TrEMBL record:
Coiled-coil ranges per UniProt: none
The keyword Protein biosynthesis is assigned to this record: no
Record's protein name: Uncharacterized protein
Keyword entries, A-Z: Endoplasmic reticulum, Heme, Iron, Membrane, Metal-binding, Microsome, Monooxygenase, Oxidoreductase
UniProt similarity note: Belongs to the cytochrome P450 family.
Lineage per the UniProt record: Eukaryota, Metazoa, Spiralia, Lophotrochozoa, Annelida
Organism, scientific name: Owenia fusiformis (Polychaete worm)
Recorded GO MF terms: heme binding; iron ion binding; steroid 17-alpha-monooxygenase activity
Binding residue positions for heme: 436
Cellular component annotations (GO), alphabetically ordered: endoplasmic reticulum membrane
Membrane-topology annotation of the record: Peripheral membrane protein
Signal sequence coordinates: none
Matches recorded under InterPro entries: Cyt_P450, Cyt_P450_CS, Cyt_P450_E_grp-I, Cyt_P450_sf
Amino acid sequence: MLAILTALTVVLLFWFMWRRPRSKLPHIPGPSGVPIAGNVFEISSTFKLVQKLHEWMMEYGEIFKINLLGKEIVVVSGSLIGEMLVTKGSDFADRPRMPASIESLEGNEVHLALRNYDPKLRFIRKLVHKGLRQYGEGMDKIEAITMTEIAKCLDKIEQLGGADFDPFTYIHHAISQVMNTMVTGEAVPDGHPMLNKAIELDRLDGELSQDPTIVMPLMGKLSLLFGVGTFSKYASAMNFFIEHWRSYEATYDKENMRGLYDVVYKAYLESETDEEGIKISYKNVKFLMFELYSAGITTTHKAIYSFVHLMVTHPELQKRIQAQIDDVIGSQRNPTTADRHNLPLLEASIHELLRFISHVPFAFPHQTNKEISLGGFVLPKETQVWPFTSGNHHNPKYFKDPSSFNPDRFLENDGSLSSASSRRMLTPFGAGTRNCIGEVFARTRLFLFTASLLQRFTLLQPTEGKLNDIDPRSEDFLKKLPCVCPNYKIRAIPR
Ligand code: HEM
C-alpha cells in the first residue's frame, strides 16, 4: 500500500512539474518555490514578504523574479529603480489588473492609482495636479489650512497638562481636517462623524492589505451582497465620504471654487477635455476624490506618528532640532514653508524618517506596456514589476548602517542639506511617470506639523512604561500596509 502511495505521489509530482507553465522570464534569477504555489508560502504576510524580498535582493541582485501561484513578478532595486521609473518611465507606467474585490467595488472603470497609463489617466493626473496646486500645494493656501488645524491639535495636547497620552487620534484628526478643507474648502466641526470614520477607514485599509481573499474573484461580490466582512465595511465607509461630498454639489458655484471637489466636478459638468479629447465621468469624480482623500491621510499620518516616536527615543536629536527652530523662527511666530531651507536638520530628519520607516515598501506594482529591456533582460509586454524601494533604503551599499536612525547622513560637514543628486537612492514617493501625486503636499504638511510640534513642546517618555527604539523591520511594524509603529504613549511638555 505504502509503495503504491509513494509511486502515486511521485507520478503526481512529475505531472505537476510537467504541467507547470514555462517561465516567460527564464533568464532572470530568483527563488525556485514549489510547483503551482511558487513562493506563496514563503511570503504569507507583509512582514515575511518584505523580509524575503530583502534576502532575495541580497542573494540574486538588483533584478530577480518571484512566482505567486504561477504569476511571475519581477522585483527591481538599486539603480534599476531609476531606470525603470524615470528613464523608461512611460514603458513601465501601467498597473497590473487590480485585485478582484476592488473590481467589484469600482466596476471595470478604475480611476487613478490602479489605472493603466492611458490618455484618461494622463488627463486625470493633470486635473488633480491643477487642483492640488490651487488647494493643496499653493503655499499661501496650504499654510493657512494646515496651520489652523495644527494649532487646534497642539492646543488640545496642551490641555492634557503633560499627562501620558497616545498622539494617534490627535494627529489623525488634524491631518483629516487638512484633507477635509482641501477637498471641500472647510473643516468639519469638532466631534463630526467624518473624523472617526477616517480612522475606521484607515484601520479597514490596513486589514484589507492583510486579507488574502482580496485577490479572489467573487469574495468582494459576496461580501457586498451579504453585507458581511471587512470588504463590505470598507465599501460602506467609502460611501459615507462620497455622500458627504455630494452634499456640496447643491451649493456649487463655478465662479467660486472652494476646493478640489469643485475643480474635478467642474471638469465633469463642463465636459472639459484635454488635447486628446478625453472627458471624465461622474463616477470618476466620486472615486477620485475618495482615492486622494484616503491616500492623503493614511500615509502622512503614519509618517508623523512614527516621527513623534523617534523624537522621544532620540532626545539629543530632538534638542538639536529645537535649537535650530529657536534660532531661525523663535517662539513668537508660526513656522512657514519658507523656513524649510533654513532648517536643514529638520529637513534631513524628514528624509531619514521616510527612508527609515519606508512605509510603502515596494511602491505600487507597475506593469510593462511593451516589450522592454531592463538590467540586461528582456521583459515581455504585461510583465508585473515591483520597485523595491525599501530594499534600497535598507541596503548598506547605499545607506551606511541602515538600521540606525541617523539624519546626519543627509547633512554636509557644514550642516547644510546634502544635494538632491546624492539622495537619488531615496525614493519614498516613487519617481517619474507614476510618482506620488501628493508628494509636495505631503512634504509640506510633514514639515509644518513637525516644526510646530517641536517649537511648542518637548516630547518625553511616558511616566508609565518606556518607548524602545523603533525597529522598522520587525513583525509589529510590518503587519499592515502602509506600515506604522504599534500604538504608544508619550508626554508633551510645553517649552
Ligand atoms: C508621506 C506621505 C506619502 C508617501 C510616502 C506616499 C508614497 C507613495 C508611493 C510610493 C506611491 C507609488 C508610486 C509608484 O507607483 O511608483 C504613491 C502613489 C500615489 N500617491 Fe502617495 N504618498 C504619500 C502621500 C500622498 C498624498 C498626501 C496623496 C494625496 C493627496 C497621495 C496620493 C497618491 C496617489 C493618487 C498615487 C497614485 C499615483 C498614480 O498611480 O499615478 N499620496 N504614493
